[in-house]
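Key result, reporting period 2: structure in, sequence out.
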């Protein structure tokens, strides 16, 4: 592949993505170009949504929020099931657009489009299971003769901000629970893949979502204003820790759900299955070109099996096919843009200059970064202590497990981690003492099932996703007391 750092090909017939505001498709007053990162060709034009259009979207959501809350749960569930059906029917087309805009390998885009309808169906099931509880007041003299129940009600307007790396399924993880809970939504889509999100939202419109229930904006300007606006009752965000901290500061006393970054720790203990561990670490460090907050990044390997693991790991990484994301044989396409590719290349170069060795990979061609294995690293290197968000992993040896657990627990990021071991005792020790949001036994950090509670601790976030758990976040509790 020839270098494509600077030249951008321009197509003559380019789709302009509209916004959805108050049930109407609105042509943007200004646009920006979205570039296919692999080919450096113009993919589409997207709205650079303005503050006036944000105001219109919030007015539409405000006008609709009582209607959403009043819609019976079975109707909300039916709406989500119909949206899921249409998303499934259009999965191949949406996957193709996703790969075009993001450079994601088409196999990964198709896999995401299998999960997205399932997420909506899970949300539909949970819509009819939103339950309160009875509070036994007669457990005290003051409560005797009274009846109390706790019920859940929609929060009102949900501001949802989603990322580019899994754009459809992560949008469904916000839209599905928000609608299931009876909320109106203003979605700020990722600027890198607006056409993909437009095709998803069209599925909701064609499923019959009433006007104002979902409103969609694009671009860079409106995000900060959206989270500051007092008409917003709840903010759900997936993205970087830096942006999450800014949102938390802007949210004031309003509740938030933040799914933020991680550094993907994996522990390969002395009794681990080396072949399985090496294969999973290689693939889960490079899937989505490493652009996942739970991608494997830092692997700690017991000294007794270190050499065998390194040999197998490098073999597995070298098997991966890098190239055209539309080729069904491709494992790794491009990262999201040239800027990201250059950042990743720079981080690898800095580590090597400081004494690390790249056993394979380390090179960049355009927005494609070769999968890279770094050894001889230390915790002072950015490749170790900062989220890389690229197809790279570091490997270090250890002799004592306790310092490894302590290092992972003391790091300011704590999303998910994994350990490979045959020992139940070791597995439970890690599960109990490693301070992360989730521990995967005999697997890596890179695992998520859409119905499970998902999220981090420390600077990796607040709250949990997964339809059942997200609905709890997107509803508020109200106690009702009957004097009998």
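The corresponding designed sequence is given below.
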């Amino acid at each position: 592949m020839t270098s494509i750092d600077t030249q951008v090909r321009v197509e003559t017939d380019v789709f302009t993505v509209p916004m959805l505001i108050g049930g109407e498709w609105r042509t943007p007053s200004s646009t920006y170009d979205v570039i296919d990162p692999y080919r450096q060709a113009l993919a589409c034009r997207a709205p650079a949504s303005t503050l006036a259009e944000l105001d219109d979207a919030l007015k539409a959501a405000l006008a609709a929020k009582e209607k959403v809350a009043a819609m019976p749960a079975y109707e909300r569930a039916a709406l989500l099931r119909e949206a899921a059906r249409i998303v499934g029917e259009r999965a191949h087309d949406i996957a193709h657009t996703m790969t075009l805009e993001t450079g994601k390998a088409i196999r990964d885009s198709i896999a995401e489009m299998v999960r997205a309808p399932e997420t909506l169906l899970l949300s539909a099931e949970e819509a009819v299971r939103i339950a309160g509880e009875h509070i036994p007041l007669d457990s005290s003299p003051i409560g005797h003769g009274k009846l109390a129940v706790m019920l859940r009600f929609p929060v009102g307007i949900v501001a949802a901000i989603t990322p580019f790396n899994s754009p459809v399924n992560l949008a469904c993880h916000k839209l599905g629970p928000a609608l299931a809970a009876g909320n109106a939504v203003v979605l700020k889509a990722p600027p890198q893949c607006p056409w993909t999100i437009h095709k998803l939202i069209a599925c909701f419109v064609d499923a019959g979502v009433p006007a104002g229930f979902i409103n969609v904006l694009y671009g860079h300007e409106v995000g900060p204003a959206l989270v500051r606006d007092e008409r917003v009752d709840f903010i759900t965000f997936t993205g970087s820790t830096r942006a999450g901290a800014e949102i938390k500061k802007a949210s004031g006393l309003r509740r938030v759900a933040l799914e933020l970054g991680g550094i993907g720790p994996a522990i390969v203990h002395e009794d681990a299955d080396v072949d399985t561990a090496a294969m999973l670490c290689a693939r889960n460090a490079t899937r989505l070109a490493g652009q996942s907050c739970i991608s494997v990044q830092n692997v700690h390997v017991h000294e007794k099996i270190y050499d065998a693991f390194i040999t197998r790991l490098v073999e597995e990484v070298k098997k991966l096919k890098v190239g055209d994301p539309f080729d069904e044989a491709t494992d790794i396409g491009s990262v999201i843009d040239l800027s990201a590719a250059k950042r990743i290349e720079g981080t690898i170069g800095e580590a090597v200059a400081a004494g690390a060795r790249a056993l394979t990979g380390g090179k960049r061609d355009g927005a494609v970064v070769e999968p890279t294995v770094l050894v001889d690293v230390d915790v002072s290197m950015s490749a170790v202590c900062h989220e890389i968000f690229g197809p790279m992993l570091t490997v270090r040896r250890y002799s004592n497990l306790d310092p490894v657990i302590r290092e992972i627990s003391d790091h300011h990021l704590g999303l998910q981690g994994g350990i490979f071991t045959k020992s139940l005792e070791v597995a439970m020790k890690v599960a109990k003492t490693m301070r992360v949001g989730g521990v995967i036994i005999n697997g890596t950090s890179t695992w998520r099932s859409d119905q499970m509670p998902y999220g981090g601790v420390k600077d990796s976030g607040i709250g949990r996703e997964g339809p059942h758990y997200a609905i709890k976040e997107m509803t508020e509790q109200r106690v009702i007391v009957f004097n009998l």
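Residues 238 and 259 are 5 Å apart (CA to CA). The longest strand covers residues 146-154. This case is discussed further under Risks and Mitigation.
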